[in-house]
């Protein structure tokens, strides 16, 4: 299966946006003159450049179809969990449990997505990993911080693997009249959630005054939130032609995705504050780590998946 | 290119790729620049992968001229280990046991420096499996600094690799690692062994602590 025609239209639109963004970033930088630097503009240039790479990677995976999307998100889960478990509590006694999380649970979850076994991939991590990983940890006999260690490992698995795997799981949905196109649901989700992140950033930078949660995240403002979420919902409505939704349904779905994405960013910021770091990692220039880019996706994906499954899919 | 050096080069690239996949290792040059100067990098030692990680974050032109100092009593015990130690990493292999050794370890290190190489050295002498962040230094770093006082001594803090690969474990768990390079140091005029070892020990510890807050 390869990507449907609608994906090509979306990609053309995204490329236009990126070209405009690159031109804006270039203009801002050249207006600054060769001798001056501005951290905000430097960061903007780095962000736009990273977007080119991310769009290229995502398009490549999507054009490769189902296998491409499953493999891409398995790798993203790997990169995200590598960042997450770097910051969690652990001891030498957790070595087998952590190795099992990476080398057994993660591949098996994505294998279940691949073979479309909904009954097991929905409970594998919340039930089986939840019960068996603490057993592996307990067998090593180290009790210090035990509950903290097993809880934080489980949280990492839930957010990075379980929630993340619901993005490619969208392809398993069987929607009448939408056969062979369900990969477009991934494109819709990613376009809305990342569009919302970018638009919140733009509105926040241009007119942000009133902070929503100054303790958690100094960059999140009411103006950025409202402007970004509303325009991202309109963007979602404008993409109705690639979904099984009507225009107003697409608007509401996009609104739900954008709001969940916003709160995802907030929750992950709270964890970063707790652990005393600014970014999750360093591999995506200008953005930080993989989780800094995926936090909103993983919070919206399972909810989007279940709402579409309940109201649109035949099971 | 002869088969042996070709296969060593391929093995080196594979080891570096593997290290990057597992640790996404990042270098922070916090006091010295990544330039090809003759240096002794002295680092904390918690895992067998330590010098691989330091080595893999060096730019390729520096990597070719940087040799780890490693224990011959470990690296020469089997053919694969010996291939990796000798051919891939071009290690300066020393015998840690004063009773059996035939060559002076400090002389071997000085010889490598004179031939134009930089060195990666673990002055604790053995892997640290205690709760203390850094074991006391053995005297090797002092003797080397006395014999080659003009060479830059660069402290290197390896962060998190002990969680990736604790002593005794067979396979690594993927976690992010950071390699922090600090400002170069030299033996000062009239500085005795204890003062020098205490000063370099404190500098390395401080480098490690600076990473935890920022």
UniProtKB/TrEMBL annotation, chain A:
Q: Which UniProt keywords apply?
A: Membrane, Nucleotidyltransferase, Transferase, Transmembrane, Transmembrane helix
Its GO biological process annotations read: peptidoglycan-based cell wall biogenesis
Keyword Transmembrane tagged: yes
Origin superkingdom? Bacteria
Could you cite one Gene Ontology molecular function of this protein?
Answer: nucleotidyltransferase activity
Q: Name one GO cellular component term.
A: plasma membrane
Tell me the Pfam families matching this sequence.
CTP_transf_1
Question: Transmembrane segments in this chain: where?
Answer: 51-76, 96-114, 120-141, 153-171, 183-203, 224-242, 248-271
User: What is the name of this protein?
Assistant: Phosphatidate cytidylyltransferase
């Amino acid at each position: 299966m390869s990507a449907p025609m609608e994906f090509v239209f979306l990609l053309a639109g995204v490329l236009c946006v990126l070209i405009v963004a690159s031109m804006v970033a270039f203009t801002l930088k050249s207006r600054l003159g060769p001798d001056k630097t501005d951290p905000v503009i430097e960061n903007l240039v780095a962000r736009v450049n990273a977007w080119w790479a991310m769009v290229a990677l995502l398009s490549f995976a999507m054009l490769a179809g189902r296998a491409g999307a499953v493999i891409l998100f398995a790798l993203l889960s790997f990169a995200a969990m590598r960042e997450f478990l770097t910051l969690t509590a652990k001891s030498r006694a957790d070595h087998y449990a952590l190795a099992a999380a990476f080398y057994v649970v993660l591949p098996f979850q994505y294998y279940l997505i691949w073979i479309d076994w909904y009954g097991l991939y929905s409970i594998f991590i919340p039930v089986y990993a939840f019960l068996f990983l603490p057993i592996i940890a307990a067998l090593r006999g180290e009790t210090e911080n035990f509950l903290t260690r097993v809880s934080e490992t489980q949280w990492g698995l839930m957010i990075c693997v379980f929630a993340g795997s619901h993005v490619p799981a969208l392809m398993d949905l069987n929607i009448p009249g939408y056969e062979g196109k369900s990969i477009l649901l991934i494109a819709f989700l990613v376009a809305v959630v990342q569009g919302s992140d970018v638009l919140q950033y733009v509105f926040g930078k241009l007119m942000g005054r009133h902070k929503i949660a100054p303790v958690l995240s100094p960059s999140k403002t009411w103006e950025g939130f409202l402007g970004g979420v509303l325009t991202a919902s309109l963007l979602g409505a404008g993409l109705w032609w690639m979904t099984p939704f009507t225009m107003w349904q697409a608007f509401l779905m996009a609104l739900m995705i954008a709001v969940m994405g916003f709160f995802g960013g907030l929750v992950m910021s709270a964890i970063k504050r707790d652990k005393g770091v600014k970014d999750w990692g360093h591999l995506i220039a200008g953005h930080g780590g993989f989780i800094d880019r995926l936090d909103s996706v993983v919070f919206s994906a399972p909810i989007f998946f279940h709402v579409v499954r309940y109201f649109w899919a035949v099971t | 290119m002869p088969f042996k050096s070709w296969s060593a080069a391929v093995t080196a690239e594979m080891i570096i790729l593997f290290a990057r996949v597992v640790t996404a290792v990042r270098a922070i040059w916090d006091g010295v620049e990544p330039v090809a100067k003759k240096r002794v990098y002295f680092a904390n030692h918690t895992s067998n992968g330590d010098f691989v990680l330091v080595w893999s974050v060096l730019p390729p032109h520096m990597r070719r001229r940087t040799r780890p100092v490693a224990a011959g009593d470990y690296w020469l015990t089997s053919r694969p280990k010996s291939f990796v130690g000798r051919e891939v990493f071009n290690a300066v292999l020393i015998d840690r046991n004063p009773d059996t050794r035939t060559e002076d370890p400090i002389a071997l290190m000085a010889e490598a420096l004179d031939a134009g190489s930089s060195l990666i050295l673990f002055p604790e002498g053995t892997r640290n499996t205690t709760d203390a962040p850094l074991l006391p230094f053995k005297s090797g770093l002092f003797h080397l600094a006395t014999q080659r006082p003009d060479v830059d001594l660069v402290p290197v803090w390896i962060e998190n690799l002990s969680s990736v690969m604790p002593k005794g474990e067979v396979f690594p768990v993927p976690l992010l690692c950071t390699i922090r390079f600090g400002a170069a140091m030299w033996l000062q005029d009239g500085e005795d062994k204890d003062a020098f070892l205490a000063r370099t020990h404190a500098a390395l510890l401080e480098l490690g602590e600076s990473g935890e807050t920022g």
